[in-house]
Amino acid sequence: MSVRRTVLVIGGGAAGNAATILLRRAGMDVDLIEAKDDWNATAGSGITLQGNALRVLRELGVWERVRESGHGFGSVGITAPDGTVLHVAEDVRTGGDDLPATVGIQRPRLQRILIEAVRASGATVRLGTRATSLEQDASGVTVRFSDGTTGRYDLVIAADGIGSTTRAAIGITAEPEPTGMAIWRVEAPRPEGVVRADLAYGGPSYIAGYCPTGDSTLYAFVVEAKRDRGSIPPQSYADEMRGIARHYGGFWPEITEHITDPAKVNYTWFDRMLVEGSWHRGRVVLAGDAAHCCPPTLAQGAALSLEDALVLAELLTGSGSGSEEWDDALFLRYYERRMRRVRPVVEASVQIGQWQLDGVRDADVPALMGRTMALLKERP
Fold it and tell me: What is the DSSP letter of 325?
């Protein structure tokens, strides 16, 4: 009888939750630890999920819940700052013709759906817990936790986000770098008539947009040049975002009147990072934002993280027998397979933002987006 393999997943975001669900399905013993006591179940406003993300969510068995909870659509509108619709473009169905091109959903709702699936998988979950040290040998990893306990694992998956402490702990020196842009986000009631995402370029910000996230909700955002976060008091966040948004027409006046609670407004810099060479050291391997991050100009952050988990789980389970050797060669295959997909997306996402920062008026954004979306239609 083969010995059951044991896996520690560090981080309960998209990548960590997805990896946990898939490895538990394959019969592995999985512990998931998450530093936040609330498992990030209330954080964030909304998220845009394109078809390639939906394809992974279907593999996880949660697609129907996501479909019922969000709002699917197949086009994006380009508007002038005054709200005049200039063009409506059909979105590419990167997940295949049997899935919507895009679904908007409240981020907390998506997280709760994934949390429920993790719980149902039978994984052991420990919240408010961190890994404080990792000691590796040829056969596995001994992990000491913040509560003083220890555990022994065949593999550790570090899915602890953009600020991953595990990444640094295993000697990977890559760190996220700001691109020069920042974004204000807020959840708001969805005005009647908003049926898709609309983006306005120009005005007092680089981009002002919104995306429906359900029958009665949307999330709205404005993108500007980054500012010193320490110079913006959190209690002024609603005033700051409202001051920018009030310059936009169309549905924006109705949205803007609901930007009143600073606690519901989020301000974040755009960052970029791509770990080069490999995403592992021994039996510790990175996934999701711990390995790569990019501006949301292509709305691919969560999708890439979900795909990481899917590809890693496929390699770890082999044909489903679990007989694949867990060695450097396997983890390099994971890295090489993901880099062929992740690198073009990160570079395109950064390039689109840089063109805006540089004021390049003849940049062929549609062509770059078209090439990238064509790549994402292929299975990861």
Answer: -
Residue closest to 369 by CA, chosen among 288, 315, 300: 300
The stretches of 11-62 forming alpha helices (DSSP H) are: 14-25, 51-59
Integer Cα distance of 365 and 216 in angstroms: 31
Distance CA 151, CA 4 (A): 15
The tokens for 222 are 């404005």
Total number of residues shown for the chain? 380
Rounded Cα distance between 96 and 104, Å, is: 17
How far apart CA 79 and CA 106 sit, in angstroms, is 24
Type and span of the H or E element at 64:
helix 63-69
For 134-189, the pLDDT digits (tens) are: 999 988 999 999 999 999 999 999 999 999 999 999 999 999 999 999 999 999 99
Helix (H) or strand (E) holding 252: helix 252-256
Distance of CA 109 to the CA centre of its chain: 14
How does pLDDT run across 255-307, given as a tens digit for each residue?
A: 999 999 999 999 999 999 999 999 999 999 999 999 999 999 999 999 999 99
Is beta strand 29-34 parallel, antiparallel or unpaired with respect to 124-127?
Answer: parallel
Beta strand 155-158 with 6-10 is: parallel
Task: Dump strand ranges (E) for 19-176.
Answer: 29-34, 46-50, 71-73, 75-79, 85-90, 102-106, 124-127, 131-137, 140-145, 150-153, 155-158
| Main-chain dihedrals φ then ψ at residue 308, nearest 5 degrees | -55, -50
Are the C-beta atoms of 300 and 376 separated by less than 8 Å? Answer: yes
Residue with tokens 């952050």: 301
**For residue 28, which of 48, 5, 8 has the smallest C-alpha distance?**
5
- Would you state the torsion angle of the CA atoms of residues 79, 83, 86, 92, taken in this order, to the nearest 10 degrees? 40
DSSP 84: -
Q: For residue 252, give Cα distances in angstroms to 2, 198, 245, 270.
A: 60, 11, 7, 23
Give every strand in the sheet of 205-212, ordered side by side.
85-90, 75-79, 197-202, 205-212, 217-225, 177-189, 265-274, 292-293
Contacts of 27 (CB under 8 A, 6+ apart): 4, 322
